[in-house]
Amino acid sequence: MSDREIVAPRVEVVAAAESYRDRAAQLAQSLAGEPGEIRSPRQYRLVVDSQLSIVETDGRRSTTVVIDFDSAALRRRVKAGTTDLLVRACGLHKQSHSVTSVIDATAGLGVDTWILAAQGVEVLAFERDPLVGVLLDDALSRARKAGLSPASLISLQCTDARASLPPIAADVVYLDPMFSKGPRKAASGKGMHFLQDWLGEQFESEDQEELFRWARQLSRQRTVVKRGLKAPVMAGVTPTFQISGKTHRFDVYQQG
Ligand SMILES: C[S@@+](CC[C@H](N)C(=O)[O-])C[C@H]1O[C@@H](n2cnc3c(N)ncnc32)[C@H](O)[C@@H]1O
Q1: pLDDT in tens, 201-251
Q2: Closest residue CA from atom 5 of ligand 1
Q3: 85-113: string of b/e by CB count within 10 Å (b at 16+)?
Q4: How many domains are contained in the chain?
Q5: For ligand 1, is residue 126 a contact (CB within 6 Å)?
Q6: 105 vs 163: CA distance, rounded Å
Q7: pLDDT tens by residue, 55-113
Q8: Measured from the CA of 162, which atom of ligand 1 is nearest?
């Protein structure tokens, strides 16, 4: 293959140096045919180097997105510990909690997955978008090599969570579907901006509701759903309680 291989209308895979060409070729093959449709005018380049990054070009501007589990921002959030709203919503803030396993069914760029694993629980993460999946997989491998302890508690499956085999269960199932029909605010942060643009409107409300029903069947203790502050509750089902922050809230559905 040449240095650059077009794998989809909007992504090209580029080896940053000769030594990364084989890996770039493998990735290009695994992403071939994705996404199969042009969803926005932006172009993306997956750069294969000692780390994978996505470079997004929009006219004359370009932005780079890399998942870094050792970033200062993420370390700060981990440091917040049991005051973090997600940690509280999942019930991990109590000394006596009995949560040992969490399914993060919508892993995305893995920030929330990491926050949960940093609390010492095993996290089974699912990501169904192949491009987002390879970025996350690469970041987790780097974190494992660097000896960052949450990484050893995370298993990633790059597939639709609902298609997981064998049948699974966990104490907590967490959903952060992000998109919903109706007006939505611009995403904050480069990573979320990339996800919003790349994934577009694919996540329709019926899809979300099916995932929600799936989650509730699997969770032994609670299902936690991240929502925009003013978004309606999922599938019209009233949560047991809500925890709200400045920009979003967590709807908590306790079992039984
Ligand atoms: C808002 S993002 C999640 C962001 C994530 N919480 C974080 O901290 O980076 C939602 C992600 O869920 C993925 N997704 C949506 N439905 C899914 C499903 N049924 N199975 C697996 N992944 C799914 C999307 O591809 C997207 O990457």
Answers
A1: 665 667 889 999 999 999 999 999 999 999 999 999 999 999 999 989 999
A2: 108
A3: bbbbbbbbeeeebebebbbbbbbbbbbbb
A4: 2
A5: yes
A6: 11
A7: 988 777 888 999 999 999 999 999 999 999 999 999 999 999 999 999 999 999 999 99
A8: 19
Residue carrying the six token digits 């999942």: 90
Compute the C-alpha angle 62/65/68, nearest 5°.
150
- Tell me the whole-structure pTM to 2 decimals: 0.92
Domain that holds residue 46: 4-65
* Residues 60, 88 within the same domain: no
Residues 56 and 76 in one domain: no
Residue 246: Cβ-neighbour burial (10 angstroms; 0-12, 13-18, 19+): exposed
Q: Report the alpha-carbon distance of residue 237 to residue 70 in Å, rounded.
A: 37
- Compute the distance between CA of residue 158 and CA of residue 156 in angstroms, rounded to an integer: 6
* Cα 79 to averaged position of ligand 1 atoms, centre (Å): 24
